[in-house]
Amino acid sequence: MNVIITGGLGFIGSNIAKRMLNDGHTVTILDNLETSIAQGIDGANTIHVDITDADAVAALDLPDSDCVIHLAGPSAGMESNASPVQTLSKGYGITLNAIDLATHVKAKRFIIASSMVVYGYTEDNPVPESAPCLPVSHYAIGKFANERLVAHLCHDRGIRYNQLRFFNVYGPGQDLARLGQGLVSIFIALLMRNPRVEMKGSPERFRDVVHINDVVEACVRCAESPNMKDGPLNIGSGEAIVYGELMRIIADEMGIADAFEIIETEGVPGDLFGICADISRLKSELGFVPAYAPEKGVREFTRWVLDNR
Predict the structure, then answer these.
(1) Which pairing describes strands 45-48 and 160-166: parallel, antiparallel, or unpaired?
(2) Distance of CA 148 to the CA centre of its chain
(3) pLDDT greater than 60 at residue 10
């Protein structure tokens, strides 16, 4: 299978690219290096290109491909509050360029990275893909707009499609310096600085945290499955974990549990109190069962950080 991955040098994209190469697929990576964790990946055809530039994307000389996995785009919710118009327009433009590329290379399937934030304030937990989407932040509105653009254009152009609603992804290789993205990595970075941590919002909030290996497995299965139905797909662990407990687990693994303390401060506008993925569709349609429960995965990731700092 020939696969194109936009944003393929980022945390999630690079892991997907390596797995698909190991599976024997041909991989082309398009990346502008803005948030990349590598300059290239052995075995992949890596092209450094600004995907916001429609002319530059249209000028690419690429062979016909089976699947386009679109991971490039604005990725930090807090940054979107500072620049809402730029965030929405940039993300929408990038996605339009990626769909045009998929059309040009005659892709059979288009997969886009979305987010659990599209659901907004939900009372359904675990939340299924069929739940109404009422996004409450600029970042979330942008993600949902991209989902709708994909559904509309891909349907009209005869391209199969899936919007992968990632929950809180974490794992080895994540950039701990980016304190605006990555719940688990942010908590680890903060606790490495000081066992007394200021938390924006209630420590009773909860999330579904999903290990990068499980994310990669789900994404690859989606790309490889010829019978996968179109539409959104939750990518999570299917389990909720409370913020305070999450931090306690990290502190315990670091050996600072006795000194650990949470200092609650004012929350971030548009932040959700709690959300957890219903992964029934992931299990039934792709036969996927997560390998990492939250506590197991977080402890392993914390040890990896300590061993590689």
Answers:
(1) unpaired
(2) 18
(3) yes
Which residue in 168, 140, 144, 126 sits closest to 281, CA to CA? 126
User: What are the CA-CA distances from residue 278 to residues 216, 256, 267, 300 (Å)?
Assistant: 18, 34, 26, 24
How many Å apart are CA 128 and CA 77, to the nearest integer? 22
Res. 270: pLDDT tops 90: no
Res 200: pLDDT: 87
Q: What is the dihedral of CA 107, 109, 110, 115, to 10 degrees?
A: -170
pLDDT digits (tens, 9 = 90+) for 105-116: 999 999 999 999
Question: b/e string for 257-278 if b means 16 or more Cβ within 10 A?
Answer: eeebebeeeeeeebebebbbbb
**CA quadruple 237, 9, 86, 79: dihedral, nearest 10:** 50
Torsion of CA 194, 239, 73, 203, to 10 degrees: -30
Q: How many CB atoms lie within 10 A of CB 43?
A: 14
Q: How far apart are CA 147 and CA 143, in angstroms?
A: 6
Q: Which amino acid is at 177?
A: A
Model's pTM, two decimal places? 0.95
- Give the separation between CA 109 and CA 297, rounded to whole angstroms: 31
> Nearest Cα to 158, choosing from 97, 85, 223, 99?
99
Tokens of 69: 């996995």
Stated length of the chain: 309
The sign of the torsion formed by the CA atoms of 174, 34, 7, 208 equals: positive
Residue with tokens 């109404």: 132
When the pLDDT of each residue in the chain is averaged and rounded to a whole number, the result is 93
For the chain, report the end-to-end CA distance as a whole number of angstroms. 37
Q: What's the pLDDT tens digit per position in 150-177? A: 999 999 999 999 999 999 999 999 988 8
pLDDT digits (tens, 9 = 90+) for 116-160: 999 999 888 999 999 999 999 888 999 999 999 999 999 999 999
Identity of residue 136: V
